[in-house]
Structure prediction request, 617 residues.
Amino acid sequence: MSDTILETRDLTKHYGGVHALEGADFALKKGEHVAIMGDNGAGKSTFVRQITGVEQRTRGEVIFDGQPVKFDGPLDARRAGIEAVFQTLALADHLDVPDNLFLGREKTKLNWLGPFRLLDYKSMRQDTLAALQKTGVKIPNISNTIERMSGGQRQCVAIARTASFASKLTIMDEPTAALGVQETAQVENIIRTLKEQGEPLILISHNMRQVMDLVDRIIVFRRGRIVANLRKEETDGQDVVAYITGAKTGAEYEGAA
Amino acid sequence: MADQAHGVGGLTYDKSKRSWPNEANIFIALIIIIAIFEILGQVLPYMNGQSFLFDTQERFDSIFNEARLRIIILQVAIIGIISLGVTQVIISGGIDLSSGPLVGAAAMIVMSFAQTELVNGNPNPKAVFGEWAFDLPVLIPVIVGLCFGAFIGAINGSLIAFTRIPPFIATLGMFLICRGIAQWWTKGQPVSFPTESFAWLGSGMMPVVWFLLLAVLCHVILKYTVYGKHTYAIGSNEDAARMSGINVKRHKVMVYMIASMLAAFAAIILSSKNLTAQTGMGQFYELFAIAMAVIGGVSLTGGRGSIIGTVLGAMVFGAIQSGFTYIKLDAFYQLMAMGTIIISAVVLDQWRQQRAAAAA
Prediction:
């Protein structure tokens, strides 16, 4: 068994004539945190959408946990162990925090009642509090419905949901883009917790400080291609910006873009 | 703003933002409506100082006008049973227009399996089937009715879940189909003379007993079971529900089946109470059932509402209807006023939602 959790080979996506993603070769080790950076339209989100099955790839291979996979949809990917937090949050607005955390995997009693089996509210509430404590998220009243929460609180719930269930791989697409300073700090705490637990992560972010703080490795996308694969210790902000803007291209990616 | 607890990360909890339950508002509205009719009774010159709520007979054993209260609750009980199902459909983000005609069709079918052989010593003049269908045990017509409801609901739900046509269209089609079935069943002839045990189901205050029993049952399944949680989740954010691994299609079929079975049960109670079934039964019931749910705070956009709200909404509906009759308002004014009240309820509710969203 190799220590690689996710690998893509020649992963490519064309939208008609637009080559949004071209020949991406990528590997992620178990327990590793990787950031994906790049300008708008560089192919970051497209790359993630091919992995999570939101879209179907034009060509190439995805190998997850040692198996070649082709997910029909995000639900498939989630069942296989890939948890993704998307820019549009998948929360039910009229339900409260435990309901959302446990949606689709409720704790129940009297299971012989089938679809009418009883919800174990008490146990779900306790587990929610434990999960929030573990991830460092402070939500003052978990019985509030999502529609009564601020954007930052919603984001925290969505991420806590992802982080509180053991998954093989977590993907976050700009998790702090819409958040204030303190809420961003909370999300970053959750990411550190994942690191301590040895759960691998792919983080798409525009925030250089955040990336330098959190991850082990930085992948730079430019015009649909990977142009750099940098270890955090061997690079700095200016260097990464040079790759993003096209002033530099990694030696092994010469002629790519 | 005095009572604020600061959490780490600047998240605060302001107790003044805690939500006041919607059901409390409806309960207050109910009291206000009754009070208005009470005052109108005292003020209007042609009413001779009658009371809407209280007994004017100077009897010792009762304060309230029990006869009127009984009529109000009996009036709403049967449509109320339908609205319990409609509530679940609307919470799941759908709508069911077929429940009224389903009452008509189910009543005809049920009654033909509940007929008695002899009427005053003579053969039953309204017999639908041959001898084998006379004096069947009461369970048979009830099961036949519920199966018919489940069948219609399964078609409704499958159309909506698998062909993705809007619920409005699917159930509008079923509306016409069910009216057709009701007329085709006996070529328009009424069906009458049920067995005594069948007549018992809807006799006296039995409709109210069924309504309250079913309301408690529906409250429990919506509030405390996986079925209920998924119903709210689908109405709130269908994509999120699907992403969470909920089988949205299967669940929708189940919701529509339960709603139609409740409508069919209402048909059983109604035909038993009236001791006859006619093709036109249940006219406007689908709209009144939706109105009860909407007055009770069930959001037509899905995800929000409760059985307690719907039961209170049914009481409001009954109080208004009874009050209009009490102040001797003509039937055509009643329909107009009813329409106005339903529209106002939705407008008020929307306004309240926007304010709550602005406050959050």
About this structure: Chain A has a mean pLDDT of 85.
